[in-house]
Design goal:
Layout: E1 11-16, E2 19-23, H1 26-40, H2 48-78, E3 83-89, E4 92-97, H3 104-131, E5 137-141, E6 144-147, H4 148-166, H5 174-187, H6 190-218, H7 225-255, H8 260-263, E7 265-271, H9 276-285, E8 290-294, E9 300-305, E10 327-328, E11 334-336, H10 341-349, E12 357-362, E13 365-371, H11 372-378
Parallel strand pairs: 2-3, 7-8, 11-12
Antiparallel strand pairs: 1-2, 3-4, 5-6, 7-13, 8-9, 9-10, 12-13
């Protein structure tokens, strides 16, 4: 992120590595839905006891998702990034942090931290189960007792599933971001990495649904409500996210071919003490559409379109000062001609609201000006 995002509305649970932990209201809806699915899994009856167990399992699942997201925040912080928020949502969660000047290493390592955290939780749970010290009854539910061992066993299972699912090499999974970083690092093209990972995400969305529905069919039975619900939820998460990433990559990839030099208007630098007639002559000789007025030490101080001088009567141009047509330029409002895409946008954004024109330099020589309207159209 180039700027801190608008704060997410929801219940604040504190902070982690400098970022707010937020639970969106939609998370409560998903908790209830998951509780229902867990309670009726396998065709069981839905009653107060089964729903209570389902709700406990749903809460444990979201706790594991929270640990997963906090791991992303920890990795981002370790690379010196400011963490903005850790958010639990209807579909799971996300972590936002300062992503300016991102590199393949930072992107890939930050994405990988989430699944690794789930692997660590599963491993810790497995060690605890192996110790045999967790067979403690909490309270009687359903047909048996809910034990500490049962909870830990579920946590191990849930975290293995979270780790494997998030490691799948397609956007929006973390594995997709790792794949994106690998392609980016090898090719030097970030948006090619996004396109590859987004297409992989689309393929995974289809495959996961086919497996979820095909497994019960292979057993000679129709998919139950649980399989249908999970298949629908997974597809609703994966396909739109992968498609959105693909569209974004296509747009931003085209932007990478935009430079200050390709969208600039040709300009010529003219000293502040020249007349309008002299400025017109120099501009016409250089085939320039703009004039950049410079101080005695060559610093740009103003500009004006050559066409603007048409308003000055011809007989007055040889004596008219350029002050009559010059519009001021803030000191330092300049960009190199080779600046591209995101870097160009970042450089210009610092000046938005103070100027709508920037000078373009090439090898220390003013060659053009960039206009805000042209920038918006190109980017």
């Amino acid at each position: 992120m180039t700027d801190a995002p608008t704060p997410t509305r929801g219940l604040s649970l504190g902070r982690a590595f400098g970022g707010r932990i937020v639970v969106q209201p939609s998370t409560l809806l998903m908790l209830v839905l998951l509780a229902f699915l867990f309670a009726t899994n396998g065709g069981g009856d839905l009653d107060r006891r089964s729903f209570t167990v389902g709700l406990v399992l749903a809460l444990l699942l979201f706790a594991s998702v929270l640990v997963h997201e906090i791991a992303h925040a920890a990795a981002a912080r370790a690379y010196g990034r400011q963490v903005h928020e850790v958010v639990l949502t209807l579909w799971g969660g996300h972590t936002t942090f300062d992503a300016r000047a991102m590199t393949p290493m930072v992107s890939g390592a930050t994405a990988l931290a989430g699944p690794l955290a789930n692997v660590a939780l599963a491993a810790l749970g497995g060690v605890a189960l192996a110790s045999g010290a967790l067979d403690i009854t909490l309270f009687s539910l359903l047909e048996g007792d809910l034990t500490v061992a049962g909870i830990v066993r579920y946590l191990v299972y849930a975290n293995v599933i979270l780790a494997v699912f998030n490691a799948l090499p397609g956007i929006p999974m973390d594995g997709g971001r790792v794949l994106e970083a690998v392609v980016w690092g090898v090719t030097g093209d970030r948006y090619r990495g996004v396109r590859v990972a987004a297409w992989a995400g689309r393929v995974i969305a289809i495959v996961v649904v086919l497996v979820a529905l095909g497994y019960p069919l292979a057993q000679g039975r129709a998919p139950g409500l649980f399989e249908l619900a999970w298949a629908g939820l997974i597809f609703a998460i994966l396909w739109p996210a992968a498609s959105a990433a693909l569209r974004t990559a296509q747009v931003l990839g085209r932007r990478q071919g935009v430079t200050a030099g390709t969208i600039m208007v040709p300009a010529v630098a003219v000293r502040f003490d020249e007349t309008v007639a002299a400025a017109r002559e120099q501009a016409q000789s250089a085939a320039a559409q703009e004039v950049v007025v410079v101080t005695s030490d060559g610093v740009p101080a103003g500009h004006f379109p050559v066409a603007l001088t048409d308003a000055v009567p011809a007989e007055q141009r040889p004596t008219a000062s350029m002050q009559s047509v010059t519009m001021p330029l803030p000191r330092g409002a300049a960009v190199p001609s080779g600046l591209t895409g995101e870097d160009l946008e970042t450089a210009l954004r610092e000046w938005w609201g103070r100027t709508d024109v920037w000078t373009v330099a090439e090898e220390g020589r003013i060659v053009g000006v960039v206009r805000l309207g042209d920038v918006m159209k190109a980017l």
